[in-house]
Amino acid sequence: MVSNQGKWPRHESVISIFLFAVLFLIGLVIISAQFDFRKNAVPAVAGPEDIHELISGISPAGFKAISEIEEYNADNLYEKIDGKAPYYTETGFVKLFTRWLVSESDENLMFEFYVFDMGLFANAFCVYSTQKRPDAQVLPAFNPDFGYRTENAVFFVHGKYYVELVGSAVSGELLAAQKDFAGKFRDGLPDEKTGMPEFSIFVGENLVAGSIKLYLSAGLGFDGFDNTLTAVYKIDDKETTVFVSRRVSQQQAKELVEKYYEFLIDVGGKNKELDLPIEGAKAVDFYGPTEIVFHKGNFVAGIHEAEDEAAAVKAAVLLNDILEKANHDEQGQ
Length: 333
Prior knowledge:
333 residues, alpha+beta, Protein Transport Mog1p, Chain A, eight-stranded antiparallel sheet, seven-stranded antiparallel sheet, 15 strands, elongated, disordered N terminus
């Protein structure tokens, strides 16, 4: 007689396998449900070979290349940008291309281009926007949220590429060459969609041009704010930082509001009573500046470190109205 000890009956084995498969599928759904700009982005078009050919052929008027194009990957990026390499590699970095170009009439005028392939637009925009220089100036022919210049450099993002053109001096001739390079680079690549409709939230006359930033993780110093956009609104001549973080469900958004509020209180903030016509909104006195957080549908939104309380309230109401319309449009009502 054969013993069945230690073995499952056939029908129990089949049921167990079925239940395991169901649980596995549920797990996949939960994992895939996490909203991520990178997962929702349109695939990048130009690959390394395309970009190498493009940048090899860009020669601004009156300038010539004085070095070969150098390439760096995640393993040796530190050799070129020591100290900052981890930030790039943790944000989706694929490859860096660099080269020096010099004026044919003045050898003291030169610039080096840094073309970072970040894999996706969201990654490229993140490193571009969060490192934006405080002395940023308008870069003609570029959307102010996607390009700017300083006294001796030009910075912009296009598709999956973040580009820096860093000059050796402050010079009109040098700046003209950098602008020429930037324009030819942009025009030489397909006009890729961003895959980030949240950009449309930040519209209107109150938006300070060029102020949008994307944090793929730990936005505002809070671990819960991944894939979070911030921007600056001007209310009554007061600049106020607003933020938006899209979640996969209204319940998740509601829970994140509570977690952020608790985080602010835990690190020394104090509850603040404000006359806010926004259901479920919470306000915190954060060592003087005002924080406001609320949710509207799947969006967590609010005001960050506002120095002017009245402006903070007005900005919160404005943002709430914009998100209400965004939710309405998404639902097709």
